[in-house]
Amino acid sequence: MKKKIAITMGEPGGIGPEVIAKALAHKTVKRSCIPVVIGDSGILRDAVRRSSLKLHVKTVQGIDESISDVNVINVLEIKSPFQFKMNSLSKGAGRAVVRYIKKAVELALNRDVEGIVTAPISKKSLSMAGFLWPGHTELLADLTGIKEFSMMFVSRKLMIILCTIHIPLKDVPKKITKAGVVKTIRLAVKGAELLGIQNPGIAVAGLNPHAGESGVMGREEGRSIVPAVDACKKTGIRVSGPYPPDVVFHKAYKGEFDIVVCMYHDQGMIPFKMLAFDSGVNMTVGLPFIRTSPDHGTAFDIAWQNRADPTSMIEAIKLAAKISHRK
């Protein structure tokens, strides 16, 4: 039986509405689940029209009204009046985005949907609206009261998980603790198991060049990362490292490991996006429901021009549906 998946519309002025519309025009997506967009039906209709898609946008008052039809996009209307402008962010858009997300979380926690897929949002719009969350991941964790969570990125040739997320690079070293690395290794196991990988091979990247070179180029490895790896090994987790960051991703790409634990955001995102910029999927591990998203941003520079590639959104929806059927 098809599972219902909620899709939040994301930043209205960005490429979210366009990639959602294009993704829901694919029959493979509609065969995998019953998608329900949470957002503004008028904006989505405009995205459908500008993308020259032959789809009907059906406004539903409740999830139960959603239908499985390849020619229909179900939209659960969330009214949040604001001055909508294409290719632009605003305080009103930031407020609307949060309302979409809160509704999706409510539906997921009530088991009205099996998971949620989130279109990109603008951190600046959130800030303009007075919200302090630095991104989707922290917002979702706060709404669900979850303390142990992380961003995991999935592609055909490489999977990564982040030990620290949206913090300045200068703050990363003091955030690399034994407890934090242990937590991320455990979340890596949980994330891999959600994807059907039992007893995954986990590689841990070092923080410093050459993984610290035995303390010559940094002490974080010896102080925090090595003890975390050793502690996890004792519990039966198949983990090794720390490996030099300039080596570990190549090893994983060749199939030596299932997933790489990265110490900071760009350490993992640069190689990941080099390999899977248009097809990679972001998955939050640790939430009480499935959450995936495209691995790209709002792309205001190409928004509303019928230029956005929906591949990552397609893969995000299909992955959420696949996990929901496995659970």
Compact overview of the structure:
With 327 residues, the chain is of the alpha/beta class. It is built from 12 helices and 12 strands.
Enumerate the spans where pLDDT stays under 50 for 5 or more consecutive residues. Answer: none
CATH names the topology of the largest domain as Isopropylmalate Dehydrogenase
Work out the radius of gyration.
20 Å
Number of strands: 12
> Pairing-aware structural class of the strands and helices?
alpha/beta
Q: What does the model show?
A:
The chain has twelve helices and twelve strands. It is of the alpha/beta class. It folds into two domains: 3-146 and 291-326, Isopropylmalate Dehydrogenase; 150-271, 3-Layer(aba) Sandwich (Isopropylmalate Dehydrogenase), CATH 3.40.718. Strands 3-4-2-1-5-12-11-6-7-10-8-9 form a twelve-stranded mixed sheet, with helices on both faces. A hairpin with a 4-residue loop joins β6 and β7 (159-162).
Structural topology:
Layout (H helix, E strand, L loop, with lengths): L2 E6 L7 H8 L3 H6 E7 L1 H10 L5 E5 L11 E6 L13 H19 L5 E4 L4 H6 L7 H9 L5 E5 L4 E4 L9 H4 L2 H17 L7 E4 L14 H15 L4 E5 L1 H9 L5 E4 L2 H12 L4 E5 L4 E5 L16 H16 L1
Parallel strand pairs: 1-2, 1-5, 2-4, 3-4, 5-12, 7-10, 8-9, 8-10
Antiparallel strand pairs: 6-7, 6-11, 11-12
Helix pairs in contact: 1-3, 8-9
What descriptive keywords fit this protein?
2 domains; alpha/beta; 327 residues; 12-stranded mixed β-sheet; Isopropylmalate Dehydrogenase; 12 strands; globular
